[in-house]
Amino acid sequence: MAHSESSSGILDTASDAGWEDVESDDDSQPIVGLFSTTVYPDVHSMLKESRDRHNFDLVKVKKELDLDLIETIKLVNYIRSQVKAGNLQPNVSSKSLFDEDLYLKPTLEDDALLYNLEDLEDDVGTVGNTKQNAEKQVVELQEELDRLQGQFSEYRSAVQRSMTEQLSLEDETVVPDPATGLETVDKAREADLDYFSSYSYNAIHESMLKDAVRTDAYRDFIYDNKHLFKDKVVLDVGCGTGILSMFCAKAEAKLVIAVDNSSIIEKAREIVYENGFGNVIRCIHGKIEEVSLPVSKVDIIVSEWMGYGLLFEAMLDSVLWARDHYLTPGGLMVPSHVTLRISPFADSDLVCSQISFWKSVYGFKMSSMLTNIYDEVLVSPAKPSSVAADSVVFLQLPLHTASVEELTFVKDVEVTLTKDIHELDGWVVWFDVFFMPSHTSLIPEDAVPSHMKRQGYVAFTTGPDGPETHWQQCLLLINHGKDAVAIKKGQVIKVQVGYRKKEEKSRSLDIEMQWDEGDAGKGSQRWSLQ
Amino acid sequence: MMNGSTNNTATDTPWTSSSADRMAGMDHAEVRYFTSYDHHGIHEEMLKDEVRTKSYRDAIYQNRHIFKDKVVLDVGCGTGILSMFAVKAGARHVIGVDMSSIIEKARQIVAVNGMSSKITLLQGKMEEVILPFSKVDIIVSEWMGYFLLYESMLDTVLYARDQYLAPGGKIFPDKATIYLAAIEDGEYKEDKIGFWDNVYGFNYSPMKEVALTEPLVDTVEMKALVTDPYPVLTLDLYTVTPADLAFKAPFSLTCKRSDFIHAIIAWFDISFTACHKQINFSTGPHAKYTHWKQTVFYLRDVLTVEGDEIVTGHLENKPNERNKRDLDIRISYAFDASDVARHAEGRCAYKMC
Predict the structure, then answer these.
(1) Locate the Methyltransferase domain: which residues (chain B) (predicted)?
(2) Per-residue pLDDT at B92 exceeds 80
(3) A298-303 and A392-398 as β-strands: parallel, antiparallel, unpaired?
């Protein structure tokens, strides 16, 4: 069933060396109160409590007496020693009261407040803006309330819908099956699909996060290019658990809008909050085409939209829609370019073992199970040795300019066999992803990720020569229905390959091919990814 | 890695890459739409599970004297393999019932193998199809799910038994036992649960909470076992009722050595006692790999145990009230160590959905 653990073996999230600086700037330390033994999570909350409960404003005193850092340290130790001696209202009318070197020695051992005095300036700003902040907070809370109310009414109508469906299901009439003369229930077939619905909620996200080729590439591009993200407004289309949004927040984006139509957004919201990005990242539940964003334009769109064979799931449609509606002129698409590659495939062991298995299962013929193998794209890792030619690019999509129409296409390419093969067993298709730093950047037509990386760019391949990713490769197996025809090294094969969405709004995909192997013959076939 | 089979999964079944990997972001209807591809892979995985398929084959082929001229009902027949075994063993007629559209393939397969006149295939729910016989002599069914009971068809088998099995009729298989044991699994627990503490430098604890409530179906190595197995529940298919499938049963696990306990695992054994010579198979960590693997329940705490000490507790299982197919599982445990500092007790709730 759906529970596949295959990804965990190939993944190595330990290769994070070099990012410690980015990831460990959490400097909030518990602070002991000036007038009590209460421990506060940060300076700000301790100072607020001092102001509110003890009518003592450290920041104000510091400002009024015009204290430098050393003098402020003395002030803190002076106050602490006075409080320790029982005086809860120490006299701070003049600098001279605590201008003695003995107050350089901490009164309180490991006093975290002393390490945080430099930040007091920030607090001055906060004090001055409290009213403004409070107003902003009210507005935010109002928005939150609206959102929750919206969600509740959505939920209510969803419950109503599903109840109606339930009732109509029960009302459904039993019809005789003409083939058997027996009664069967029409909907039974649909019901059994339910049976295979996702087994594990976490496993999907776990496998994507643990796909280090994928996640490292986004992280590397964002962290290596912080200057591009600093103070920018970023839109994350299909944010999942929010990892890319948090990368952007760490890179000091001003605002990140994270949109996802799945209920995972609730977890993303919690995760964002847990990591202290609640005021930078806004999580919005819904389809990008339907939700309303808090801004009219964004500077950057980041998205991990790639599906099997690149275009399965058709999520790119939504990303391009978002680009056309929200990306400011000159804004950046992350990633910026993708290419699709194809190569002939020959792996007789694999094909034979499959076919012979269904030809005799415990002594029974089950060849009718074979049809699926030739009708459907098989998502599976291809052995590097099964790739029989240098791959060729049959589509390059520059994400800044590509249109939805370009996602249905027919292309002509040629491949040259680099070895003798027993038979052309099929085709292997994969994609490469490139992260260029500007909307005007170009990549060579036959760009190779490893070459681009040597030039300092971020890129990755999902091909058989690279480390395994959760996308694996797409295998299109040829149904020869005749004896094998060997083909020699050097043979040129002319290939026409087309991608076509099955129908409007469908996520599934047809791949159609025609090929001409010269003397070895010709062929054409169609596979679907569903 | 303790649960060492993770990579094998991909190579064992290269054609069954699950679309679940890419289901994130889809709503339920879409997920349903995409799972049709999995059908093929699932049937392949089950047929290639030799422990499973050979046990059924042997139980049927070695008992031709029991099957000869009998009417057999195959509940959840899938590709029809068990029905065909029964015909080969001399059954007079076999009725295969399955809700899934796989039955169309089964029809083609049965025809190609020249058994159309011996096997009647019906698509639909057991409760709704009309059988060409009012009683059957033998029920065969491969109904077991992960943790024996998750998405299992046992309810359907019991309905078929009550409705159609002739007095003195036989059920293949007719006995199932769930076992528990505790394992040391520090490294893998860190990989599966600890992973969420730090994801690229971020705190993913909301996902960790979910992870702790999801039993993990995975292969456990024999050497990870810290305790002896304990048979926590035995089902006799001639007498068990659907109500018995919601149960609370005590367990007592005796430690074999000084070690840590990170998880409790469950597996099941299956017996065909109606055979002339009883046939059994186990899905435990000591036995050959099956597609059921084992089910791992991570505990929040780590127990520090020594040889001969005993961890006691209760395993509780009931179908979820809203979705009967989901299981609500609870494990409570108490560990009275010889020194108080190691004493531990806890109660963990899991959901298989």
Answers:
(1) 72-169
(2) yes
(3) unpaired
CATH number of the structural domain A337-529 = 2.70.160.11
Q: Is B29 on the interface with A (CB under 8 A)?
A: no
Residue A294: which of A284, A286, A307, A304 has the closest Cα? A284
Strands B216-218 and B294-305: antiparallel
Write down the mean pLDDT value for chain A. 82
Does residue B147 sit within a domain? Answer: no
Chain B contact set for A357 (CB, 8 A): 44, 48
Range of the domain at B254: 176-352
Q: Residue A340 is which amino acid?
A: L
* A381 in B contact zone (CB under 8 Å): yes
Chain B closest-CA separation from residue A326 CA (Å): 21
Q: How many residue pairs from chains A and B have C-beta atoms closer than 8 A?
A: 233
- CATH code of the domain covering residue B39: 3.40.50.150
B304 neighbors B269 (Cβ within 8 angstroms): no
How many domains is chain B built from? 2
B293 token code pair: 């693997």
The model's pTM? 0.72
- Within a domain: B192: yes
d(CA A317, CA A404): 6
Pair B202, B312 in one domain: yes
Provide the token pair at B168. 């003195």
Strands B294-305 and B310-319: unpaired
CA distance A262 to chain B (A): 5
Q: Mark whether B208 and B62 lie in a shared domain.
A: no
Tell me the pLDDT band of A7, cut-offs 50, 70 and 90: very low
